[in-house]
Every structure is written in structure tokens, then in C-alpha cells.
Amino acid sequence: MVMKKVIVYMDNREDRSLDQYFSQYDCSLQRKMLVCGDFLVSDRVCIERKTISDFIQSIVDGRLFQQLKLMKDNFEKPLLIIEGSDHGTLYERLHPNTIRGALAAISLDMGMPIIWTNDFADTVGMVYWIARREQLQLKREVPIRIKQKAKTPKEQQEFLVAGLPDISVIRAKSLLKHLKTPLAIFNASEKELQEVDGIGKKIAKNIRKILEKQYKGK
């Protein structure tokens, strides 16, 4: 019996030079614009990766808890990886109590596990083994698309449009602002789609291709 291959989704915005680190593992690395997190390994596990410097900066600019809350709202088992071996640098830019308070809030108030890794190679190994455990041992599926909770008509429209190829939530909002309705987007020509900020010729062509292609599922 052939063992099913592990699939890891990595966010498109991560540096492409990092892809090589996955080559030593028996897995299929696929890049995708993720709504939240940096890695998606099952229908319940999403992983946010922060280097030590990015972790500190995200506390300063307020991104950290917004990003983690989005994962918490959409996944049963989100987790945070903090990457870097020099933990002493955590306290160079912020008061130690600020760092401690953030770590306590993440682990206790949000109930989110924190895993520490030495470098990106170590992070990749951790991501792979989590994915392997989820998919091969626990038989969890990997969703093609994040099932973000959409409560309002506005959120449902954004979620619907974000299902188009190469369309992030940000681009979905741009399309809706310009063309007003999902129906208008689906009916728009390549030329009309290209009039929207962030939609180039290639993306417009891919959108029309997927909308016009005949479905061949059983």
C-alpha cells in the first residue's frame, strides 16, 4: 500500500528561497495566499511563524494579536512558532515584562501553544512532523481553502470572490469596490478586470479561464 504524501501549504508571501528546506522531507509543498498564518497543515491546524525580531516588531505595531485572533477564529488548533536561537534579543527593544505579558496572554488567555525553534531549517522540520501527524496518523484532511467564518453579507461576498485564482482577501475587496457585486465580477471581461487595482493581465486571464471552463467532476 502506497503511503499518502504529506501536503504543506505555505503562504505566498514567504521568501521563495525557503522552499529548498522542504526538499529533504517526503512532502508536497504548495504555495497559496493564506487568509491567516504562514503554514496550513490540516483542517484544524494553522501555524504562524515569527522570527524573534518580527515577534518583537509585531508587538510594537499591534499586528501580533490581530494575526493570532484571526487564526483562533478560524482554526481549532492554531499555534505560534517563534524562530531564533538567541532568546536574549527578545528583551533588547522592549521591557522584559512586556514580552512576558505577551507570551502569557498568548499561551494562557488565547490558549495557543508556542513552539520555539533555532532557525528556519528547524521550523521546517517541526512543520513537517506536525503535518505528518495530522494527515497520516490522525487522518485529518487539508482544506483547499481556509473556511473563514463569514457572518455578514459583506464578509460572505469577500469570501466568495477570494475563492477565485490568485485572489487574496485584499484583492477581493478591490474587485468588489470597483465592480460592486460578485455577479458583476464573474461577468466582467479580462479588460474590465484589469481596470481593478492589483489585477494584472495574467490574473485576469486566470479568472476568466476558471469561470468559463466546463466542470468535469463526477
Keywords for this structure?
218 residues; globular; DNA polymerase, domain 1; alpha/beta; 44% helix; 2 domains; six-stranded mixed β-sheet; Rossmann fold
Q: List how many beta strands DSSP finds.
A: 6
In CATH, what is the class of the largest domain? Alpha Beta
Q: Spatial order of the strands in the main sheet? A: 2-1-3-4-5-6
Strand content: 5-15%
The biggest beta sheet is recorded as: 6 strands, mixed
Structural class: alpha/beta
Number of helices: 9
Unreliable stretches (pLDDT < 50, length at least 5) are: none
Q: What is the fold-level CATH name, i.e. the topology of the largest domain?
A: Rossmann fold
Any idea what the radius of gyration is? 19 Å
> In total, how many domains does the architecture comprise?
2
Corresponding CATH architecture of the largest domain: 3-Layer(aba) Sandwich
In angstroms, what separates the terminal alpha carbons? Answer: 25 Å
If you average the pLDDT, what whole number results? 88
Give, in order, the helices and strands: EEEEHHEHEHHHHHH
The backbone outline, from C-alpha atoms, is globular
- Helix percent reads 40-55%
